[in-house]
Design brief:
The structure holds 3 protein chains of 3 kinds. By secondary structure, chain A is an alpha/beta fold. Chain A has 12 helices and 11 strands. In chain A, α3 runs parallel beside α4. Chain B is built from 12 helices and 2 strands, in the order ααββαααααααααα. Chain B has a two-stranded antiparallel ribbon. Chain B is mainly alpha-helical. Chain B has a single domain, classed as MetI-like (MetI-like fold, Orthogonal Bundle). Classes of the chains: A alpha/beta, B mainly alpha, C mainly alpha. β2 of chain A pairs antiparallel with β3 of chain C.
Chain lengths: ~300, ~300, ~300
């Protein structure tokens, strides 16, 4: 009888040892690989993922970690020095630059790596082709009065309930803030819109819902939805979203996509950013549905340029 | 005194005894770990929320009873969670309206009507049903049941209270069945025998004897189901359409307290008021489920004392 | 217990005409039986329907390569290896933490504690720990592990959060297993002079080990399916990992996870092959149900060979 507990204890010890060994093993195994942490904009998370995936083929020893969260979250992490690269679909704010300086003693370095256009989506069977900003404010804005498609002269035969189903993004996303500031400036949106969590979810819901209108990145378009042309004022000529309209600035909902680093990037991070701004990296941008930086502007944006 | 002296008890080494008392200390420590963790959860969640609670411009009344949730407004930030609370309760109420009759009905069938083999099989099915991860339920709600809802009701959008309620009902049925069955099992057989001897049918036994006798346990089953439904996150995030407003019908989209945290926490800059208010919502949720669980526990103990 | 069947009519005995009252009673009996059976059946049907539908939609993608391959083309093609391994990491580490604490806590509750207010408080705490919403666990993990303990967004933080969340599962089933060991076994052991711990070690644990294992298995299934607690503590959208790499992560890095991956491909990744989210759901659900089925089988098998 005394021997039985003994052996059992030994089993227990071995088990504990094995466990701690396994933990230590996990820690050791991936020693030499370099990890680049990239966090930020949800708009850019897909293109950031595509870069990371392609780059794994170019430089297998570098592992890029991609997480979303939002532009503000990425920059907040940069301020703390917790990430190597912050992605943001907006410009870094002055007070954020100040905080970066204060916290890390370095200046944030800005790389424009592409452009995005927010598109206003409706169902493909919706006869509407364009909208102006004032009408959008009437639909989305806090005291906007437009509630039904019939008020816009749009009729859906056989549909009784033609209330406009507003599809939006959760209010903390950069996409939401960008769209809101263009449509209503500093004012607020009406409550009661479906504030979805993913850019893709917005487009899918609009694609399923005849009476819906929503906004999301141009890259998320599917055959079930239609992008509307937008005009700044009621009389102005509407501009549909396109590569050219984004680059020449005529499309109102265009914005540049940034990557920020702490000071001049070095080593693996620099190589990664250089690759992103090179032809293969920019092809990834185009494939993800965004607008690449034109070749003429790449040199100015690149890390190499600053080092020269 | 003539009997041989008993063999001396083998002395254990001091090391062994020390090891044993250390181990017992560890056991006692682990024993209280649950209390420590519950307190720690409250402490750490409240700690992140505290600065906003004690700041001068925070209005608890508005936080609880205003429907205006504008966490990122450029001109006028407002943190009113009333619509979210109503959303949580709307979805939970619908889920319970479906799950309670079905769950209790199934519990009665399991404990009073079906044979042993069938009962074992059904219990395994219930266990598997309860093991389905909530994100899978959410995915099903988003891709499958939302379309069924549109087809069945003609609603414009399939992600709404009805969709969320049905999915939550499926998620909380297993807990209602298993706790409910336990409660029915706890009713002494002598009650049943007495009723049967008086010529009652089994339905009469259930209705007149068992339900009143197991009342507290069944109440606990329902409450634990409520707790599960209120706290559910991923499934409602994907199922309910996430719109901040007081629902006027089953086909309106709503946002719940849990889904709101899940959707916005990732994008609220750490340390901002928005971030802290989300933690405060967590404190609110913690308090709701804590209260529900305590009442359920009291109800269960009521049963035990009598049984 | 199940009530005795209603007495069969014996043809030899002259029977009284059934009164309307008796007929009504019998009818209500039949109706009740059918109604309750239907309610029970209402649980079997959705389980079967869900499994069937998911499998049917996932079929085009379901092959071994899907499990072993990494996501490709912006996560629209390829497999789920990094997410699968990440889930193994999270589950393994959380089990390593919660298993000892949970089992020892159950030993305390069943073998050491007296029936007093303190023990009742512990019981209440266990119940509440199980009832705390998963998103509140996420907030706790973020506040306690990521920030206060400074583990950062990492596998470590996420696993610890999962460990605390799943602790009640282990405590509850271990307790049940310990309580099923007859008290006379303990008394016999005490009577030969064994100390409390020696008794536990020599008699109680060996006789309840199967029930304890069942609890650990259930913890694994629970931890594998959770999404909210890891979303904000250590799971990333994407991470570059080599195909089939068994040790791709360090414990202070973030990882992908199956549950989170299902959420992102369902809501954020545009133009993903239709079968991929379904196949991800099938792999997640399949693993969880497989683990649960193991626990059920173990329990049934052991109940069959119990000696008392």
């Amino acid at each position: 009888m005394p021997s039985a507990p003994q052996s059992r204890r030994r089993v227990g010890l071995t088990l504990a040892a094995a466990l701690s060994f396994a933990c230590a093993g996990g820690r050791e195994a991936s020693g030499p690989a370099t990890v680049i942490q990239n966090k930020g904009s949800d708009t850019m998370v897909n293109v950031a993922q595509a870069w990371a995936e392609e780059y794994a083929l170019v430089a297998p020893d570098v592992k890029v970690e991609v997480s979303g969260g939002g532009s503000g979250v990425g920059i907040a992490a940069l301020i703390k020095g917790a990430v190597d690269i912050a992605s943001a679909s907006r410009n870094i704010k002055d007070e954020e630059i100040e905080q970066v300086r204060l916290n890390t003693g370095k200046d944030p370095r800005d790389f424009v790596v592409g452009y995005d256009a927010l598109a206003v989506y409706v169902h493909e069977d919706n006869p509407l082709t364009h909208l102006d900003r004032e009408t959008l404010a009437g639909i989305f804005g806090e005291h906007g009065t437009i509630e039904r498609w019939s008020e816009l002269g749009v009729r859906f035969p056989g549909v009784e309930d033609d209330r406009i189903v507003r599809v939006s993004r959760q209010s903390s996303s950069g996409t939401f803030e960008f769209f809101r500031s263009w449509v209503v400036g500093k004012k607020d949106f009406k409550l009661g819109s479906r504030d979805l969590n993913g850019s893709k979810e917005v487009v899918e819901l609009v694609g399923h819902t005849l009476t819906a209108i929503g906004f999301s990145g141009m890259g998320y378009a599917t055959p079930a939805v239609k992008m509307l042309g937008l005009a700044d004022a009621p009389g102005a000529a509407p501009v549909p979203p396109s590569l050219d309209a984004v680059l020449d600035g005529s499309y109102p909902l265009a914005r540049s996509l940034h990557l920020y680093t702490l000071g001049e990037p070095k080593g693996a991070t620099q190589a990664y950013l250089d690759w992103i701004l090179s032809e293969p990296g920019q092809q990834v941008v185009a494939r993800s549905g965004y607008v690449p930086v034109p070749p003429s502007a790449r040199a100015a944006a690149g890390a190499g340029a600053a080092a020269r | 005194m003539t009997a041989p002296a008993p063999a001396p008890r083998p002395q254990r080494s001091r090391l062994e005894r020390l090891g044993e008392s250390l181990l017992e200390g560890l056991i006692r420590l682990s024993g209280v770990s649950a209390i420590v963790f519950v307190l720690a959860i409250f402490f750490f969640v409240f700690r992140e929320a505290a600065p906003v609670v004690f700041s001068r411009n925070f209005d608890l009344w508005k936080f609880l009873f205003s429907i205006e949730w504008y966490p990122t407004s450029a001109s006028n930030v407002r943190y009113g969670t009333f619509a979210l609370t109503v959303g949580s309760f709307a979805v939970t109420a619908l889920a319970m309206a479906i799950a309670v009759p079905f769950g209790l009905g199934a519990a009665i069938y399991l404990s009073e009507f079906c044979g042993r083999r069938l009962r074992e099989t059904l219990k395994i099915v219930i266990e598997l049903l309860s093991a389905i991860p909530s994100v899978v339920w959410g995915f099903i709600a988003l891709t499958v049941t939302s379309k069924l809802v549109v087809d069945a009701t003609g609603a414009a959008v399939g992600v709404n209270v009805l969709n969320g309620g049905v999915v939550l009902a499926l998620m909380s049925v297993p807990i209602i069945v298993s706790i409910g069955e336990d409660a029915l099992k706890a009713v002494p057989d002598s009650y049943r025998e007495a009723a049967l001897a008086l010529g009652a049918t089994r339905w009469q036994v259930v209705y007149r004897v068992l339900l009143p006798a197991a009342r507290n346990g069944l109440l606990a089953a329902v409450l634990l189901g409520v707790g599960r439904a209120v706290g559910e996150t991923m499934a409602v995030l994907m199922a309910t359409g996430h719109a901040v407003h007081i629902p006027g019908s089953l086909l309106d989209s709503v946002r719940t307290l849990t889904a709101n945290i899940a959707a916005e926490l990732g994008e609220a800059p750490v340390g901002s008021d928005h971030y802290r208010v989300l933690f405060l919502t967590g404190v609110l949720l913690f308090c709701i489920t804590f209260a529900v669980n305590i009442v359920a526990d009291l109800a269960i103990r009521g049963v035990r004392r009598r049984g | 217990m199940s009530a005795a069947a209603p007495p069969a009519t014996n043809p030899a005995v002259p029977r009284f005409a059934r009164t309307a009252h008796v007929a009504r009673k019998e009818r209500s009996e039949r109706v009740a039986r059918v109604v309750f059976a239907l309610m029970a059946a209402a649980m079997v049907v959705p389980l079967a329907a869900i499994l069937g539908y998911l499998l049917w939609k996932a079929a085009p993608a379901l092959r071994l390569e899907f499990l072993l391959d990494v996501p490709k083309k912006g996560m629209t093609e390829g497999g789920i290896w990094p997410a699968f391994v990440g889930t193994l990491y999270l589950v393994g580490l959380s089990l390593a933490v919660s298993a000892p604490v949970g089992v020892l806590a159950a030993v305390y509750l069943n073998e050491y504690s007296r029936d007093n207010a303190f023990t009742r408080a512990i019981n209440l705490a266990v119940i509440n720990l199980a009832g705390v919403p998963s998103i509140v666990h996420a907030l706790f993990g973020l506040g306690a592990f990521v920030y206060a303990a400074q583990f950062g967004y990492s596998i470590l933080s996420a696993s610890l959060t999962l460990a605390i969340m799943t602790l009640p599962v282990i405590i509850a089933s271990t307790r049940e297993a310990l309580a099923s060991v007859p008290h006379s076994f303990r008394e016999a052991c005490w009577n030969v002079g064994a100390s409390r711990w020696q008794t536990i070690q020599a008699v109680v644990l060996p006789n309840s080990i199967s029930g304890i294992l069942t609890g650990l298995i259930l913890q694994v299934s629970r931890a594998a399916g959770e999404t909210a607690p890891i979303m904000f503590t250590g799971a990333v959208f994407y991470k570059a990992v080599q195909r089939g790499d068994l040790l791709p992560y360090r414990l202070d890095e973030q990882c992908m996870a199956l549950s989170m991956h299902l959420y992102t491909v369902a809501t954020q990744v545009p133009n993903v092959q239709e079968a991929i989210p379904y196949a991800t759901a099938v792999v997640l659900l399949g693993s969880v149900l497989l683990v649960n089925a193991t626990a059920v089988t173990l329990r049934v098998w052991l109940r069959g060979r119990k000696r008392w």
